[in-house]
């Protein structure tokens, strides 16, 4: 196994950081790594906002659902899907690009672009001994986050990335069975096998929680998922995206 | 610089592969690496389909816009955003999860999840000396790709990943200026600076094309973008997504 694969397989989300800010060299390396990810037709449809200011971080933590590690970390990166640069490019070149920017296809493109960049940032950070946690919670109050960080039209905050020196190590959560994630030649058609995978996984996940909580929890994965999905959350998303210019068509 | 950062910074898309299939160990390592990416609330909302069958690959290449490297590579992975597993979880647990699965928020979650996994797969492959190319072209005929690979409801093909032993090395394309991608504390408010970044970048990109094509091309980046975006493409996307159960709310 090489160092890259070792770093990838060793990933765990870190939710407790030492009070030690990243230096500017570390930030530069992380952002440059992010930039080298593949991008759809060279579009580079994302922007990263780095937040150091303590008041801003505290506000973000509150908006994200009072997660302390949004406030207390070495650096907070906000990853945005961004087509504003392309709106400006249209103006510079005197070409109307709005129909294209407003297409659902371009929403997909910008989310994929931002995410590929973020995962590069993650691995660069982890390779330097730092820990990370993705913060989807910023979408709880996505309009307020956008306002706080002054995002223009065609820019949406997708997720945060809290980075810092890990204070506490955490355990890895077991992933879905290989054969349930990876299908050959076509989507797995045999429903019995598919359900068996989930049953098998439920046992693995239950055993994990039992061990970790010394018997206090033994959730099945399907139970966790059904519970999480019984109510739609962040139902403001479509309106927010459309207000920002996305997904109108 | 460590090996991880070196691998990340050395990335270039490879569009010509040696006729040598990946072995099953390589495929396993790549998929296991993908699985270790972060996932929103443990949802793991993606599936990877591995395609070896030559006829299927040839059809995919045609559907993706006749890109030869979709057919000729060491292995073809299709990354899908997938909430079907969660639909099944709802059935197992006797909980109605459809409102949640149909929310735009869950479209975002599944695209981000699939993309983070894909970038791990990419870096694992590159660390083993393989080359990769993301294939957004499969979205040209997304309904036919979904039909070909028998994707059920709540599953959408997002992009392919062609992987193999590189036949020809390629050059890296210069990325946007650091200060244009990375903003501090808030989105860059100074429009003059912002435009200056793009002007500066246009010069870099023009020089790159001039050098690479021995003077035959000298596109500016804003020109390329405006040209690409003057017409909306893949305008079938919203209907396709909604037919698959996504983004109805």
TrEMBL record, chains A, B:
Belongs to the flavin oxidoreductase frp family. Residues 8-164 form the Nitroreductase domain. One of its GO terms (molecular function) is oxidoreductase activity. InterPro entries: Flavin_OxRdtase_Frp, Nitroreductase, Nitroreductase-like. Keywords: Flavoprotein, FMN, NADP, Oxidoreductase. It holds the Pfam family Nitroreductase. This is Nitroreductase. PANTHER family: NADPH-DEPENDENT OXIDOREDUCTASE, OXYGEN-INSENSITIVE NADPH NITROREDUCTASE. The keyword RNA-binding does not apply.
């Amino acid at each position: 196994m090489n160092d890259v694969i070792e770093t990838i397989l060793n990933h765990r989300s870190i939710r407790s950081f030492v009070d030690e800010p990243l230096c500017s060299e570390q930030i530069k390396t992380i952002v440059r790594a992010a930039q080298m990810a593949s991008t759809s037709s060279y579009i580079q449809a994302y922007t990263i906002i780095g937040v150091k200011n303590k008041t801003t971080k505290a506000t973000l933590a509150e908006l994200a659902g009072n997660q302390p590690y949004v406030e207390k970390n070495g650096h907070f990166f906000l990853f945005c899907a961004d087509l504003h640069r392309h709106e400006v490019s249209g103006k510079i070149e005197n070409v109307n690009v709005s129909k294209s920017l407003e297409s659902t296809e371009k929403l997909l493109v910008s989310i994929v672009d931002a995410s590929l960049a973020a995962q590069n940032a993650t691995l660069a950070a982890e390779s330097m001994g730092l820990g990370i946690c993705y913060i989807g919670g910023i979408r709880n109050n996505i309009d307020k986050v956008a306002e706080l960080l002054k995002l223009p039209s065609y820019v949406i905050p997708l997720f945060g990335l809290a980075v810092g020196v890990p204070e506490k190590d955490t355990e890895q959560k077991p992933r879905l069975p290989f054969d349930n994630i990876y299908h050959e030649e076509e989507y797995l058609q045999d429903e019995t096998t598919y359900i068996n995978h989930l049953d098998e996984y439920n046992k693995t996940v239950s055993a994990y929680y039992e061990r970790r909580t010394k018997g206090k929890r033994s959730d099945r994965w399907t139970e966790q998922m059904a519970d999480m999905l019984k109510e739609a959350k962040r139902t403001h998303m479509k309106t927010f995206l459309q207000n920002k210019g996305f997904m109108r068509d």
